[in-house]
Amino acid sequence: MANGRAQRLLRGAEGVTYWAAAAPVLARLPAPMGYRLACWRGDRLHHWQAAKRAELERNLRQVLGAELSPAAAAQVSRDWFRLASCEAIDVMRLRRGGLPLRRLVEIRGREHLESALAGGKGAIVCSAHFGSYDSAFSMLGASGFQVTTIGRWQHKYTTSLSSAERRLWELVYARPLRRHRHRPNIEPWSGRFQVAAQAATALRANEVVTIAIDAPPLDSDLTRAVDVPFLGRRARLLPGVVTLAQVTGAPLLMAFLNRSADYRHQVLEISAPIQVTGDTAAAFGRCAAEVSAAITRNPSHWVYWASTADLGTLGLTVPDRDTSPATSLLPLPDAGFLEDRTADQIAAPLPVTRLAASRGLQRELNAGELLGNLPQAARDLGVLRRG
User: Fold this and answer.
1) Pairing mode, if any, of strands 147-149 and 208-212?
2) Number of C-beta neighbours around residue 379 at 10 A
3) 323 vs 57, 334, 354, CA distance in Å?
4) How far apart are CA 87 and CA 177, in angstroms?
5) Following DSSP, what letter does each residue of 281-306 receive, concatenated?
6) For residue 233, which phi and psi values (nearest 5 degrees)?
7) Residues 232, 233, 239, 241, CA torsion sign
């Protein structure tokens, strides 16, 4: 146990050092060199963190099955760690109006987003916990779109963090991302139905609202989750993002940031609007199918491979449930500082209730929570439209 605690402290110290000191320097080097060194760090973590590596590869083989050989699973696992390190460089390259990062990212489908905004009802851009999704949202803002993200800054609520750690994380992570967002994050909490009204306000101003739709639902929300095809299996997800689009009339588009083989160049692909009329579950199934296809093409980009418990909550694996069902969202009491990518805080075998409460620094909206009381939310949105 003492050795395990010491290892966690060492990993935490390494993560703090990387984000606070090394990543800012690497981001100012020529891109080929900076990202190459980030990949080298990812390779070292892949070697040193044997337990996490084993969990990643086990989850990959269990979910993807025969589609992924042991050798391929090992390669995906290594790339997962590499991408974790590269994502820090992405955040640091958002300086100077985001130009250092924008030079490396090609936006395909920008015309779809511009056409959607031409309708005057705003646009909802959906993604997943996939690649540098947070940087992608901010880069849209740096590219001229007025962007608001629905999700909370988890470092503000994680009780185990000291005030110094909170300030550091605010400085190295939240501030560079927030600089390119038009409004403060809309932070959803259970029972705060005004979140729907805040999202509608942004859409009514013809702005872009971004969310990730693949967060595992809390146990208390499972009755409202829908069962959709996902990665060749069935997953339980909350479909409220479709309801938000139906209530506001805003077009709903999918977007994914894919990293190239050289690790520095990326492509942000924005789809044409998804059809959301008719049955909500069927419409959400089309959104989930886009997420599933993106993960299948680039499995190393998906954060949740590192958490068996989250995959179990989604219904993709058999979860190790060692606590009673959750009744509310709780701050993570013992997470420590984020070491690599979003799933680092949730990769250890923590109770499922705490895992569900810690989706990284940004707990992305499950729009079922946002519109959990649909009639009241719909009335609030209606008042805003009339205003």
Assistant:
1) parallel
2) 13
3) 25, 16, 10
4) 12
5) HHHHHHHHHHHHHHHHH-GGGBGGGG
6) -130, -155
7) negative
- pLDDT of res. 252: 98
Report CA dihedral (324, 325, 329, 335) to the nearest 10 degrees.
Answer: 50
Rounded to two decimals, the pTM is 0.82
Please report, for residues 220, 241, 313, 353, the alpha-carbon distance to residue 316 in angstroms, rounded to integers and kept in the order given: 18, 21, 8, 17
CB burial readout 119-158, b (16+ within 10 A) else e: eebbbbbbbbbbbbbbbbbbbbbbbebbbbbbbbbbbebb
- Report residue 339 CA to chain centroid gap: 16
| Residue 101 token pair | 């990062």
Instruction: List the single range of 21-30, 144-153, 181-190, 299-308 with lowest mean pLDDT.
Output: 181-190
Question: Mean of the pLDDT values across residues 293-317?
Answer: 95
Length of the chain: 387
CA dist 186 and 197 (Å) reads 10
What's the rounded mean pLDDT across residues 301-317? Answer: 94
Residues 6+ positions from 212 with CB-CB distance below 8 Å: 126, 127, 128, 129, 130, 133, 151, 364, 365
- The residue type of 266 is Q
Confidence of residue 24 (pLDDT cuts 50, 70, 90): very high
Q: How far apart are CA 148 and CA 11, in angstroms?
A: 33
- Reduced to 3 states (helix: H, G, I; strand: E, B; else coil), residue 336 is coil
Structure token digits, residue 114 = 């511009």
User: Would you say the C-alpha torsion 244, 311, 266, 82 has a positive or negative sign?
Assistant: positive
* DSSP 8-state assignment for residue 21: I
Give the DSSP letter of residue 10.
Answer: H
Q: What is the mean pLDDT of the chain?
A: 82
